[in-house]
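lol ok so funny story. i was supposed to be doing the assay writeup but got distracted and ended up predicting the structure for this chain instead. priorities right. anyway since i did it might as well share w the group, maybe its usefull for someone
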Amino acid sequence: MAVIVVGGMIGLGKTSVATLLGKSLGSDVFFESVDENPILPLFYTSTPEEIERKRYPFLLQLYFLDTRFKAIKQALTQRKNVLDRSIYEDWYFAKVNRELGRISDLEFSIYENLAGNMMQELEELPKKSPDLMVYLKGSFETVLHRIGLRGRDFEQDPALIEYYRTLWSGYDDWVMNYYNASQVLIVDMDVTDVVGRPGDAERLVQDVKRQLEALQ
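and the output, tada:
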């Protein structure tokens, strides 16, 4: 059985899709660490001055790098799992925060070196990378709508809109031109609702199964 990562912009439904695929394929699911993450609310709600002083973006990227590394190591060892986002996307988030001046060049260099060492460790596992990324793609309007629907208080500040826009504007380019760990299945979330429309959920599952069969 395959290892699948579910990727995509904040709010587009990675957790719902990962849950659906895990249930449909009989796989365990490794969920993104959010509720128990002590840094994430601080990252979203701190003032620019607090971010500059306390380095929350850098700390957040280190936290995610640590938790995702643990998850993908376990997933690749077991050979049959679904991951709600993965270590591969972390670099993109770190890159964006560096471009926004929230992470310094020195911090980004430290992050890249640490991530590189972790990726070398993955090369020693029996299974070295995922088989498929299910990439959730959507318009910026859909992103904002779904962030609003899920209602996490720390994500709702209007001041975050430009941060979301910056992340969203480069996401497709990262997937198409930088991600090379596996094949990619693109899902249009402007027209897909796996929670509210059972037919959409079934189509997605069948699309994933066909993609996995083609890889065998």
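The first helix runs from residue 14 to 25. The beta strands are 3-8, 28-30, 81-84, 132-137, 183-188.
back to the writeup now i swear
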